[in-house]
């Protein structure tokens, strides 16, 4: 029985020199690599040494690429191109790689003549076959004359050479108009190689889009499971190979990028629909994502500065300090189903103060098995004798994600402080978490949270904020018990900005924000009068409503279907976090993104003018 498709990664996906890239690919569990010529050219290793290094690491070299501007050229250019190819065939033999990628010609010299292209590619395939090699022809989306997969297929079919086949690259296919479904009708055995990349939809030059903005499968907008189905329907049994050109990945830790890539492939394989006739190739499925019920506790790492501010704010919001951990400097604060843990013993590696959060899973064991299959790092939870086990994995931003069951008594480890929960302020539970992401790992985090917890995208937004352009991506489970709003600055911040890095936050839900606002004693963030003047004009709100909102510092948003969000914020606490209170009306399903710039400006003003 086969194990499922082989998984490969192009060396161009990750940062470093070839040695770094090979180690990273092997450590992440890939079976093979596509070797980019540039990585070979700058390597101190000979082709034979690269071959043995790869073998030592358990990696095969599945593709040599790219060979450019070959086909449909005048005779003297053809002679030169064939001579150039022979030199590469010799290198390939030393590397032990049998397939060469030929990209469609982008040169002005290329002739618009499919017969000529087919004839010359057949000649190249003949030369390759003499060395026991084969040619995979790829239509670059910006090829001079051949820029779509169907045209590259017509040429390959016309050439009719057994050593000539197609390279299907999901980016080039899905960035163009020709539907991918027709790939299923390509003659069995004629797809020699499959390259996988995702991307966001962008209206820009396709070459720039491809060279800078590709993402790993599941991180962009392309329908890759459907493309995979079409390719597998032809009987394709070569590697699933990631080929992602991305400016951020090129600068990130290659080991981490390779794990991100592997996670994307594991998740993609899980999403491929069953392909009739391909029972020979069992697809590996993940443990199903169990249903999530709700957010349980959120844990903050606190120090001497943030601790007192957080305690005062929680008290003001109607929380009571109900529990003290038996063995650790950890406090439990509670109001109905809102649970906050203040932990003086953990430090968070990122800029945030949310060190972890817990979700209630209907099957935490299955959640953990799924997380492990998706290469989530298990969080070593040190617990004392007799303490409850709280399983957790660590997200890319360093946040620990605890998975608790509906009946788990995780707070058995807390001794009653004797402090009675007060009347509270009407906060029902945690509505969402605002998790600001480190610049380099935004897409990685989105993929992690969605795949590991089984969440789906609910909103994506870009907006101009006082300290830069921001991007937000919100994910949630289908019943909206668990919502996460991930945000990031679109560019690395400038030099003065560290002081104003957007903090993380917890938003609590209420059914009556005006009553809650009247009940709470915590300092609510003052909102400028200009905001309310604009609000009245934008939404045509009645004067008395605007007056009420203004009186309590409540912000407002409305969706096109008439759903409404009323929400308020606290100032930033201890320089690191803040709280939000939200009331959703009429099915409002977003996060008040439009008000984020108002909040950021107000929080800065508050910081500069208070204390
Ligand atoms: O951007 C390029 O030139 C390029 C090269 C090789 C590929 O496989 C590809 O998809 C793009
Ligand atoms: Mg490609």
Describe the protein's topology.
Elements: E1 7-10, H1 18-27, E2 32-36, H2 37-41, H3 47-56, E3 60-67, H4 75-95, E4 99-103, H5 114-130, E5 134-138, H6 149-159, E6 164-169, H7 170-174, E7 191-196, H8 206-212, H9 224-233, E8 240-242, H10 254-271, E9 292-301, H11 306-316, E10 320-325, E11 330-335, E12 338-343, E13 354-361, H12 364-373, E14 377-378, E15 392-394, E16 400-404, E17 414-416, E18 427-436, H13 442-453, E19 456-465, E20 468-476, E21 483-489, E22 504-510, H14 513-519, H15 529-539, H16 543-552, E23 555-558, E24 564-569, E25 577-585, H17 596-609
Parallel strand pairs: 1-2, 1-8, 2-3, 3-4, 4-5, 5-6, 6-7, 7-8, 9-12, 13-16, 18-21, 22-25
Antiparallel strand pairs: 9-13, 10-11, 10-17, 11-12, 14-15, 15-16, 18-22, 19-20, 20-21, 23-24, 24-25
The chain binds 3,4-dihydroxybenzoic acid (DHB) and magnesium ion.
Domain Xylose isomerase-like TIM barrel: 23-265
Pathway: Aromatic compound metabolism; 3,4-dihydroxybenzoate biosynthesis
Cofactor: a divalent metal cation
Structural features, described:
The chain has 611 residues and is of the alpha/beta class. The chain has two domains: 7-271, Alpha-Beta Barrel (TIM Barrel), CATH 3.20.20.150; 292-609, Roll (2,3-Dihydroxybiphenyl 1,2-Dioxygenase, domain 1). The protein contains 17 helices and 25 strands. The strands form three sheets. It has a nine-stranded mixed β-sheet. The longest helix has 21 residues, at 75-95. The chain starts with 6 loop residues before the first strand and ends with a helix. The mean pLDDT is 94. Bound molecules: 3,4-dihydroxybenzoic acid and magnesium ion.
């Amino acid at each position: 029985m086969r194990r499922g498709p082989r998984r490969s990664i192009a060396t161009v996906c990750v940062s470093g020199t070839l040695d770094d890239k090979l180690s990273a690919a092997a450590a992440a569990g890939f079976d093979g690599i596509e070797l980019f010529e540039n990585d070979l050219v700058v390597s101190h290793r000979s082709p034979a040494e690269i071959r043995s290094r790869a073998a030592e690491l358990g990696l095969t070299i599945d593709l040599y690429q790219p060979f450019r501007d070959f086909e449909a050229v005048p005779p003297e250019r053809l002679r030169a191109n064939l001579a150039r190819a022979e030199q590469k065939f010799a290198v390939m033999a030393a590397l032990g790689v049998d397939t060469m990628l030929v990209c469609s010609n982008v040169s002005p010299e290329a002739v618009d003549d499919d017969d000529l292209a087919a004839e010359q590619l057949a000649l190249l395939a003949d030369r390759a076959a003499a060395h026991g090699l084969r040619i995979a022809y790829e239509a670059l989306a910006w090829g001079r004359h051949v820029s779509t997969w169907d045209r590259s297929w017509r040429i390959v079919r016309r050439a009719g050479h057994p050593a000539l086949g197609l390279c299907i690259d999901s980016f080039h296919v899905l960035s163009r108009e020709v539907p991918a479904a027709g790939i299923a009708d390509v003659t069995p055995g004629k797809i020699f190689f499959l390259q996988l990349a995702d991307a966001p939809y962008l209206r820009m030059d396709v070459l720039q889009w491809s060279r800078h903005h590709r993402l790993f499968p599941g991180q962009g907008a392309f329908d890759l499971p459907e493309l995979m189905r079409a390719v597998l329907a032809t009987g394709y049994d070569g590697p699933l190979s990631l080929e992602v050109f991305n400016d951020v990945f090129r600068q990130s830790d290659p080991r981490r990028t390779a794990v991100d890539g592997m996670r994307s492939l594991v998740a993609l394989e899980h999403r491929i629909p069953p392909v009739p006739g391909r029972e020979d190739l069992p697809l590996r499925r993940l443990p199903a994502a169990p249903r999530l019920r709700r957010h349980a506790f959120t844990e903050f790492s606190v120090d001497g500065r943030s601790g007192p501010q957080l305690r005062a704010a929680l008290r003001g919001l109607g929380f009571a300090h109900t529990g003290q951990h038996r063995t650790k400097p950890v406090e439990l604060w509670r109001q109905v189903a809102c649970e906050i843990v203040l932990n003086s013993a953990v430090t968070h590696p990122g800029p945030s103060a949310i060190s972890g959060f817990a979700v209630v899973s209907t099957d935490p064991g299955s959640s953990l098995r799924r997380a492990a299959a998706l290469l989530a790092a298990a969080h070593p939870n040190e617990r004392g004798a007799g303490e409850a086990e709280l399983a957790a994995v660590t997200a890319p931003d360093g946040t620990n994600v605890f998975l608790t069951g509906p009946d788990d008594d995780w707070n058995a480890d807390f001794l009653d402080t004797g402090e009675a929960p007060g009347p509270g302020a009407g906060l029902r539970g945690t509505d969402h978490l605002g998790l600001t992401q480190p610049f380099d790992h935004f897409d990685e985090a989105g993929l992690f949270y969605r795949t590991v917890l089984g969440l789906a995208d609910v909103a994506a937004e870009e907006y101009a904020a006082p300290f830069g352009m921001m991007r937000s991506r919100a994910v949630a489970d289908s019943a909206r018990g668990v919502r996460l709003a991930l945000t990031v600055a679109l560019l690395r911040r400038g030099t003065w900005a560290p002081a104003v890095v957007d903090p993380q936050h917890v938003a609590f839900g209420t059914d009556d924000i005006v009553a809650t606002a009247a009940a709470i004693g915590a300092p609510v963030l003052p909102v400028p009068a200009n905001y309310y003047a604009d609000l009245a004009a934008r939404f045509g709100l009645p004067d008395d409503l605007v007056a009420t909102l203004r009186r309590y510092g409540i912000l407002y948003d409305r969706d096109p279907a008439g759903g409404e969000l009323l929400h308020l914020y606290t100032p930033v606490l201890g320089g690191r976090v803040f709280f939000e209170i939200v009331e959703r009306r009429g099915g409002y399903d977003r996060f008040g993104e439009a008000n984020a710039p108002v909040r950021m400006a107000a929080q800065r003003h508050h910081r500069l003018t208070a204390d």
